[in-house]
Write a structure and sequence with these properties.
Layout lengths: L2 H10 L4 E7 L5 H14 L3 E5 L10 H12 L4 H11 L5 E4 L2 H7 L4 H8 L1 E5 L5 H10 L6 E2 L1 E3 L5 H9 L5 E4 L15 H11 L4 E4 L5 H7 L5 E4 L1 H8 L4 H9 L16
Parallel strand pairs: 1-2, 1-9, 2-3, 3-4, 4-5, 6-7, 7-8, 8-9
Helix pairs in contact: 4-6
Length: 266
Amino acid sequence: MGIHEKFKEVKKEGRIALIVYITFGYPSVGESLDILKLLEDLGVDMIEVGIPFSDPVADGKTIQYASEVALRNGATLRKAIKEIDKLRVNTPIIMMTYYNPVLAYGVDRIFADMKEAGFYGMIVPDLPVEEVAKLKARTTTDGIDFINLVTPVTPDSRVRLIDDVTDGFIYCVSLTGTTGARDRLNPELIPFLKKIQKIVKNPVAVGFGISKPEHIEHIKKYADGVIIGSRIIEAIRSRENLRELIKSYQKALRVENESDSRSSRK
């Protein structure tokens, strides 16, 4: 099942999608694969797998720490594709990586290898949308959806451009700055989401700073999904009960009133 199909499925169920981020290779390569399988068993809707990189410009200190550990553990883009291919996971997996590792791997090979391994989407935060369009024009992406980011300061005209070259979903960054769990949401988040929903044709998922079930409760009428990353890494690092944490998020996903801002979008 592809990314768009998954969003349609969860909407029919009267809820929004839960997308969970992990870093490949953290706390070890083997443990990260075990966590990936656990997330599938727990029924999360999509799994975002971060590829560790030495200069992760979009990531806050929590994910930077996980990346540093993963790099010491020998985690690479090539190893991630190889090891995840062995797992045969049915849950849609999204790769989050930077462009240098993609270039090093080879843009003419990576998409076919990703598809074979079970990846359905790719996020490359340091690749401008104009370059995404050029990349898609010159090589087949083998059914890998490009997922692009918009922020509260992205001009409307650029949001439309980003939407045009996006296949999977629009990743709405809830605040300006890097990733990281926050206690409070940006007070301007809801107006931002309302605006984005009126502009884009793709599903909208919200990430950066989402850490509590009450955050999901606050935004779920204005989004099609939520992405939780830093809080998951913190839980892994402190050996919290990941199963219970995921269940607490899942309980908050249901949208009781379907006359929300999502209903007017195709």
